[in-house]
Amino acid sequence: TINVKVNGKALTAYPNETILSAARRHDFYIPTLCELADIDHTPGTCRVCLVEIQMPGQANTHMVTACNTPVKEGLAIETRTKKVRDMQKLQVELLMADHLQDCATCTRHGSCELQDVAQFVGLKENRFFDPIRVASREVDHSSPAMVRDMTKCIRCQRCVTVCRNYQEVDALVVTGTGLDTAIGLRHGKNQKDSTCVTCGQCVLVCPTGALAEKDETDRVLDYIYDPEVTTVLQFAPAIRVGFGEEFGMPPGTNVEGQIIAAARKLGVDIVLDTNFGADVVIMEEGTELLHRLAERKKPTITSCCPAWINFAEIHYPELLPLLSSTRSPQAVVGAIAKTYLPAKMGLDPKRIRVISIMPCTAKKDEIVRPQLGEDGTPDVDVVLTTREFARLLKREGLDLNTIEPSTFDNPYMSEYTGAGVIFGTTGGVMEAALRTVYKVVNGKELDQIELTQLRGFEGVRSATVDLGGNIGEVKIAMAHGLGETRALMEAIKAGEADFDFIEIMACPGGCVDGGGTLRSKKQYLPYALKRRETMFGIDRKAKVRQSHNNEQVKALYRDFLGSPNSEKAHHLLHTFYTD
Ligand code: HC1
Ligand code: SF4
Questions:
Q1: Which residue among 48, 451, 467, 496 sits deepest, i.e. has the most Cβ atoms within 10 Å of its Cβ?
Q2: What is the pLDDT at residue 216?
Q3: Nearest-ligand number for the alpha carbon of 516
Q4: Ligand that comes closest to the CA of residue 311
């Protein structure tokens, strides 16, 4: 180890460690807006982490950026001298010179890292603000999922790193130099035309409101307060385990009951569960898988993750025939909520508006696919991300902490099984599918229902599972994160991957860490494992744990769809993909 002093206190640091890292380990706060250790990102561009250092034996001090200056034996580091405080403040003021000043209208208001740092340095004036320069910056509203607003960008480049090195989509690129530096798209004139798949992982690391979901909270209020409209709300498997955090609850708290109650307090008429749709998906996708196995078509790849679908369409169009045609659970709930539900409840389908709460930005993209609607009317009308739903509740004066939990009461589309809930974490769709496929093949349930051998967290996992009967052993794989997905797709193209069934989730960790989830300032995906543990716990305690045993799903087939993969099921619950 190396001996240094921070603010006069002797500490040990690791060789090659940066000043920022050593200070942080010893609980000395140094502000930064560009560095993000979790993605190995230290570009030194924001220059807010200035500190004053003195080499041993030297009288003079000088200023360095802590994020990219290594420690040295005997180094004395000062983080709070007047000189440091003044220079940090000046640096933040310079960033503000080229930053839209309208915080009150920003999606990040109240949870912005630039606001935090401005408070930390005690910013009181804004002498260099250049409204003409800011007005010349690009604002890109082309994507149905997200907004790229260069009037708020501080050019930290975290988004570029996540997209290039972790998701390996490489849609973003630094453009221009000096004062004209900005973040642009590598291909295409705007986000919609580009190779971006709207996974939203870049949004999770953006320190400001430069990258954000497209805010649609007002549309939801329009529906709720329209007396002519019946509002139906569904929420995704992962929402219940990640939503409490926005209200200060520990990561992974299960707030399903509070969400149901909050939705009713908002004025929503019918609260449904996307988990019900996940159980239906298993019936459809499992049947489809068995047909494809019988026809020796392989692999079959899951199709519930919309950023993965975008990725396949844009980056691997030649592999589209391998994708399951089954729609995602959100799309399934939308289609059934506008057909079966109104028939059962005596409602006018034309007056129903379906609102989804999803941990995902790409789900906003999914619902505008023309093939996921009927005669130009979308099955799902609006998607709010986890973040927007939190904002909506706060706008309406609702605090999740003081809401009495409730339970579902819809007798047609709210029951779910343990299989449905684990969809929200990597490997869950596979595990849910195998529980049902095994029963179909063997006529009896799996003895060991938790397929714990599938529950690792490595980027790509594979296993061989004996399904018995006329199917026998099947080779399966699960990938999460698009970097890992790309590697797997390349292996398939090269004929080096021999699998029967593959689950893909575009976000690392699966939906529990979706691009629409709450942003943790300063860390990338810190809560995945806690959220996932809670999901497995819900499954473990569920009375019914296989999709085919869901009584409401059975009724749906008995009263409406006929059998899985029937003509009606095909019409309502399957889709196609285009390159
Ligand atoms: Fe997901 Fe899915 S699990 S895609 O990860 O198949 O978003 O949670 O809702 O549709 O069910 C997301 C989560 C979600 C769908 C389901
Ligand atoms: Fe890249 Fe995903 Fe961001 Fe698009 S949404 S720019 S693919 S990280």
A1: 48
A2: 98
A3: 1
A4: 2
